[in-house]
Amino acid sequence: MHSAFKPTGAIGGAAILAALSCAIGVIDLSLRPLTLNLSAPSVPVEPVPQPTPSPARPAPRPAAPTNTPPVEPTAPADQLTRPSPAGHPRGEGFVTLEQARSLHQSGTASFIDARNPDEYASGSIPGAINMPPDAFLGGKIPDALFAISRDLPIVVYCGGGDCDASILVALKIRELGWKTAVVFEQGITGWKAAGLPVTGGGAP
Amino acid sequence: MTGRAADACGPAGGGARCGVPICAALPLVLRLTLGALFIISGLMKLNLVGLSWIHPSLVALEPRDFAFSIRAFKLGLSDPLVQFLTFAIPWTELLCGLALILGLLTRGAAAIIALLMLAFIAGIASLLSRGLDVNCPCFGALKLFCTGPLGACHIVRNLGFAAAAGVLLWLGPGPCGLDRLLERRAT
């Protein structure tokens, strides 16, 4: 006569192991809570001047493809110094295309490209340093980070809307003390779509 | 029919089911191999202990790195669910790996690993169909058999793991497993 629940059977054993794994997982999560979203930077980023002609969106360059979708700003320019609008899908700590462009033109911000080296080599924002999440594996701090001022804005980007690597890198470098890190959510895709300059890569 | 390896630890469970002598040792070999791989896989995602002293490539991920890898699949999972999976998946791998090594709840561990691998295969296929590039968080910094973003190589590798787990599911723990003690107590 077989009992209904047999630990050495596939279903009984799987149920025991699954229950145990989930229970330990929940306990581990409560002991090591995860931060997955960016808050506003604890050190306010320098206010960004509004572009003088104040077009609603950047005019694409003649070379840009005509069927490129327009790039909508995701938040007002002063978002970094006050809470982001309600309903922002990613919370605070993000800069718009306009802000990223202003910071880049002012030359006061550092740009970090969080994509893989081969993607970085295929075209990046001029002056951007390549620093993918893997550069931090094993608690390592990339040497290039020490060349970046902790007081000036740091703009982290990756491929665009579908990538989260920029958020992960921004979270990591904030924890390491570079608290002015913000994320340019539209990434290289939004940058290129706006007809802004791109280089073939190479650290400054 | 039991093989010599089975005799070393007493009567085998289902190891002799296929009727070929090598089948008696096969479950033990599969258990130890799969078990070790999944223990490493779990530890690499949980960052509980450093294993780089074994090999320099055994550098663990932070749990948050794994959470972002789950998010990168763009499956529309809520943050609490991502956080739960970030710990539940590696703990499942770790416990199933330990279970296989010990030969305890072997069929259950094999069933979970097979299902996990099939789920990963479905996830990778979904990634490929959407043209998304995601780095493999599978074994931390260690690139086991496959390099580059998740792709066809990882599907084949996971199919191999699923097949090995399927064989264990069929054959049972074989020799030298604690399941035998449980079965004796039950009878």
How does this model look, in words?
Chain A has 204 residues and is an alpha/beta fold. Chain A has a domain at 79-193: Oxidized Rhodanese, domain 1, CATH 3.40.250.10. Chain A has helices spanning 10-31, 97-106, 117-121, 165-175, 187-193, and strands spanning 94-95, 110-113, 129-130, 154-157, 181-184. A five-stranded parallel beta sheet of chain A has the order 1-5-4-2-3. Chain A is elongated, with a radius of gyration of 22 Å. The N and C termini of chain A lie far apart (75 Å). With 187 residues, chain B is mainly α. Chain B has one domain. Helices cover 62% and strands 0% of the residues of chain B. Chain B has helices spanning 4-8, 22-46, 63-71, 79-102, 106-130, 152-171, 179-186. In chain B, helix 3 crosses helix 4. In chain B, 49% of the residues are buried. The chains are: A alpha/beta (204), B mainly alpha (187). At the A-B interface, helix 1 and helix 4 of A face helix 3, helix 4, helix 5 and helix 7 of B.
Q: And the CATH topology of the domain at 79-193 in chain A?
A: Oxidized Rhodanese, domain 1
**Global morphology of chain B:** globular
Low-confidence stretches of chain A: 47-90
Q: Over all CA atoms, what is the radius of gyration of chain A? A: 22 Å
If helices are DSSP runs of H or I spanning 4 or more residues, what is the number of helices of chain A? 5
Beta-strand content estimate of chain B: under 5%
Largest sheet of chain B: none
**Biggest beta sheet attributes of chain A:** 5 strands, parallel
How many domains make up the coordinates of chain B?
1
Binned, the helix content of chain B reads: 55-70%
Low-confidence stretches of chain B: 1-8, 11-15
Quaternary organization:
heterodimer
